[in-house]
Amino acid sequence: MIVEIGAFALVLSLVLSLLQAGASVAARLRRAPVLAAIGEGAAIGAFGALAVSFATLVYAFVVSDFSVANVAANSHSAKPLLYKVGAAWGSHEGSMLLWCLALTGYGALLAGYGRGLSAGLKSVAVATQGAIGVVFLAYTVFASNPFWRLVEPPVEGRSLNPLLQDPALILHPPFLYAGYVGLSVVFSLAIAALIEGRADAAWARWVRPWTLAAWSALTVGITLGAFWAYYELGWGGWWFWDPVENASFMPWLIATALLHSAVVTERRGALPGWTIFLALGGFTFSMLGAFLVRSGVLTSVHAFAVDPTRGVLLLTILGVTSGLGFALFAWRAPAMARGGLFAPISRESALVLNNILLAAATATVLLGTLYPLIREAVAGEAISVGPPYFNLTFTPLMFLLLLLVPAGPLLAWKRADAGAVAQRLWLAAVLAGLVGVITLALAAPRSLFGAAGLALGAWLILGALVEVAERIRLFRAPGSESLRRLGGLPRGAWGMTLAHAGLGVFVLGAVFETTWKDETAEVLSLGQRLEVGGYVLTLEDVAPVQGPNYEADRGVLRALAPDGTLACTATPERRLYATGGQTTSEVAICTRGLSHLYVVLGERRQGLDGQPAWLVSGYWNPWALLIFLGPGLMALGGVVSLSDRRLRLAAGRSAAPAKAAQDPGATPADAPPVGSQA
Fold it and tell me: Same domain for 594 and 641?
């Protein structure tokens, strides 16, 4: 009976989303506040109904109700409770219900907290959000219903893919979907701006917090996915340019560009058309990601389903939704005001260049992701595009972009003095250069790429600190005045600093780990050793252990540091899940400062002396921890910026600061901070 309640609530949410879209459209046409209130109430009701529906699905997994097809295919009575809950969104059907929950949740937030928007803009945005909800809810109800019953329920379920039975994978989809679907609100606001002909500062001020929330959630989601791949798949890496990884990375790049573009539209009234284009593109790439992951056109450990029929439906949704949005853009955008003029050397120009490079990087990733699919469809030839392509095309674009990041916040609006900016950044440039030179001189083996990369990471961190120093007039004002200014810095300024510094931390970790990583693999019998990164690993024991729903061989390896002291005792496992007969590796990671000693126990073999032996792989990943701490700082910067009350106020209530920002004589330290630009 409880499952039927969930199925009914799902259909009710679809009906309420229809009412949300219809009442909001009628409210816009008739200028009727009562109808607008009905539409907003329906949006909140749709979310409430879907929350009930989702809760019942989780309940079905927790109690192992195998009469539900989705539960029977993705759960098992012996599975730990945490993974039973996670299995609710570990399948195609469950993940689509989670997608719809996020979609209606954002619709409810837009309806409840959009008071600063004009009545027309809000009605159209709520209507568009409702229409998107109708499309995805209808797909879920009729093509991917997670509540379908089985006529003859099995005694036991088939369980969830063992690779997905991991805490990081429990959190990864909710954060990723919060980012993916968060861009739907920006899409709805873009449609509203096109219909109303109002892409002004007030509209841009509403776009920014929604984009920032989606960007922050996407950052966390992508990082969790990379961390899962790092310690669960047993290959020692964290990013492989897998097509499904790219599917989440592309909307992140577009959202990053949109954050910067919206700042220009808000502060200077410039680039309104381009900002709308990015707002449409962000959710389009999110829908493209949903199609790639669920259609079966890609083979990946990240993919949810192999179902061409439902893939065609998702492709249709993508084509109709984005097609209508861009058709409206082609019709209405040329009539929009172009906004204020600005000099080639200005903050606006820096942000435009930022957008050009991010757009080019996104196009590069898109080409590398889709070209193999197009080639196979046209020529019937299966090819793969891997890291070499992206290293040659994406990396130079990012290097140039990151090189320019510290200068952007120091430039004045409308017209800036490049010499003055260089004067402020010279010390940071010298220190970053010294980092590169020292690295090239002392690191073994020597690497020009590694030295340049570490210099770039230091440049980003030092540039962020210089920006703070300029805001508080460090060394140019009395110490008490600088401290007073430091205490009065708005959260938006701190958010931007954290995001830019976090980017530098990530670059340091990624470059160091990539350049000076060491790995080796040997077949070891008990008592034998292997060396990796200066550490000596001795295989002391391999014993069987019993898990809650698996059997495993657990190895015990003693790791000695280069100085001969005991570094750690690593206990990697090789697990066999009886349900499904799948074997996985549970790696052991010893943290040594910022670095990781990474150990994998492979399959059992026979040694040269006839004794049992095992394939043991060891990886020394220097500074690998920074790879995950950096994005964490970036996401924290986004959250800190969101907590800035000024960012969440309507533009009409903040007109004075916006006008002040347009003063061409204002210096970056005098001008109001622009919030997070990362």
Answer: no
